[in-house]
């Protein structure tokens, strides 16, 4: 089918009719035309665009960012996506830190189930159990820092390691590379 009503479009992607009316009003998704009785009509090309809009919304982009990406694809699109990815990384680190705080609070409450989260000690024990000695762990950090420094930083923070210690680890990791 290459000719959809607004209700068919909405149903196809799981949005409300009023959402599509709003997208039309802000210029994000204009219908291809109108029927003889004045109803909006959409084509497969409109459906493809709407599916892309939905995917970008699902990724957490604002309608303004989506409008920018769709109207001027290219380097601006990659900048928007890279910015969103960085935001998500920061949120993930913050959530992980909150998990560590809550787990520590739970451990201090009598009669509560011991909740475990991956922390520095558990991670080091896991690497040691896998047969890595101190030098292998240092090499692992050095390679991680070389190949993905910001992800390395975020990972260390996600283990509940304080900022100052993360900076120290990253400093000697960078020196190991040299």
Automatic annotation (TrEMBL):
Give the UniProt keywords, A-Z.
Answer: DNA-binding
Please name the SUPFAM superfamilies in this protein's record.
Putative DNA-binding domain
Which Gene3D superfamilies does the record associate with it? Answer: 1.10.1660.10
Task: Select a single GO molecular function from the record's annotations and give it.
Answer: DNA binding
Domain HTH merR-type span(s) in chain numbering: 3-72
Q: Per its record, how is this protein called by name?
A: MerR family transcriptional regulator
Q: Name one Pfam family in it.
A: MerR_1
Gene source species: Tichowtungia aerotolerans
């Amino acid at each position: 089918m290459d000719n959809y009503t607004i209700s068919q479009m909405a149903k196809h992607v799981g949005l409300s009719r009023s959402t599509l009316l709003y997208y039309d009003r802000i210029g994000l998704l204009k219908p291809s035309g109108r029927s003889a009785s004045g109803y909006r009509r959409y084509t497969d090309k409109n459906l493809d665009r709407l599916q892309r809009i939905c995917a970008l919304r699902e990724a957490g982009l604002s309608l303004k960012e989506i409008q920018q990406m769709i109207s001027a694809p290219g380097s601006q699109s990659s900048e928007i996506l890279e910015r969103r990815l960085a935001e998500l990384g920061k949120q993930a680190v913050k959530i992980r830190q909150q998990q560590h705080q809550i787990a520590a609070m739970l451990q201090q409450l009598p009669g509560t189930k011991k909740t475990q989260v991956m922390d520095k000690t558990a991670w080091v024990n896991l690497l040691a159990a896998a047969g890595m000695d101190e030098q292998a762990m240092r090499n692992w950090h050095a390679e991680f820092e070389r190949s993905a420094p910001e992800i390395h930083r975020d990972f260390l923070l996600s283990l509940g390691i304080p900022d100052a210690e993360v900076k120290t680890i990253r400093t000697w990791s960078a020196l190991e590379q040299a």
